[in-house]
Amino acid sequence: MVNLGLSWSFSSHEQVILTALNVSGSALSFLGSLFIMTTYLWNQSLQKLAFQLLFYVSIADIIRSFGNLWGNLSDGNACKAQGFLSEFGGVASFFWIGFISVIMYGIVFEKGRWDTVTVEKLKRRAHWMIWPFALILAILPLTTDSYEDTGGWCFIGHESISQVWAFLCFYGWLWLVMLGTVILYCRLYSKLTDLQLNKLQLKSSHVSDEPDATLNSSQLNDLRAPITDNYDIDEQRKMRKRMLHMVRRMFFYPS
Q: Could you list the residue ranges that cross the membrane (predicted)?
């Protein structure tokens, strides 16, 4: 029996099942990430912001999946390497997912400030922050030899210091990113819902293109302004709806 530090234990048969499920899921994830990366590099028309961000998530996910493909390893250097790759790829993956939600939030709520140049600068900064930080978090458990066989795969173990590393280097950041992402998504959804309601209200108050001739020019402009705004809002709504759809797919992709 293998104790996981959380009062869980698995028999040898259960470990075999867990390993098979882990390897199978990792193989599918590896192939899916490889397909996305190959398609992105092969097709230049896809090399835009949305697919660039998905490409970075795929890089992180393929690192994590590659380590898990090794199966259930006994304690040793290979086990430590598997745990290291799983930690590094996993942390980098959900950091990029969090960055995607920040980008989408900025584009929707700060559209006047978040132009192409600004987004490119933020993307470069994200590379300099996410990859090195994920690497540091993956190295820290190595300092106390905390990567070990946890039952089905190798990861941060169940000793007291290992549990501290598990929270500080993985689960704490995972929960923080998930919470922040959910909050940003809720605000995005609320914003897009408001735009949709505004559009319906403008349609319901739509006036004729040929108003009464007795109205002066100032009144005519006041009447036509909502119609013009309606077109602008409609275009913005469509763009933001596409962005939100993309974010939803990216959020659930690595799981």
A: 20-42, 49-70, 90-108, 128-144, 164-186
Instruction: Report domain extents, the chain.
Output: 2-196
Question: In angstroms, what CA-CA distances link 177 with 110, 183, 185?
Answer: 21, 10, 12
Please tell me the distance from the alpha carbon of residue 28 to that of residue 61, in angstroms, as a whole number.
11
Residues in the chain, total = 255
Would you give the DSSP letter of residue 169?
Answer: I
Phi then psi dihedrals of residue 178, to 5 deg: -60, -45
Segment 145-169 shows an average pLDDT of 86
Buried b (16+ CB within 10 A) or exposed e, 208-241: eeeeeeeeeeeeeeeeeeeeeebeebbeebeebe
3-class state of residue 10 by DSSP = strand
CATH topology of domain 2-196: Rhopdopsin 7-helix transmembrane proteins (1.20.1070)
| CA 246 vs CA 15, 162, 166, 224: distances in Å | 37, 37, 31, 34
Indicate if the pLDDT at residue 254 is higher than 60: no
209, pLDDT greater than 60: no
* CB of 174 closer than 8 Å to CB of 94: yes
Report residue 137 as tokens: 């978090």
Report the alpha-carbon distance of residue 162 to residue 146 in Å, rounded.
5
Whole-structure pTM over 0.85, yes or no?
no
Rounded to 5 degrees, φ, ψ at 70 are -75, -10
Q: What are phi and psi of 214, to 5 degrees?
A: -75, -15
CB atoms within 10 A of CB 39: 13
The Cα–Cα gap between 150 and 247 comes to: 33
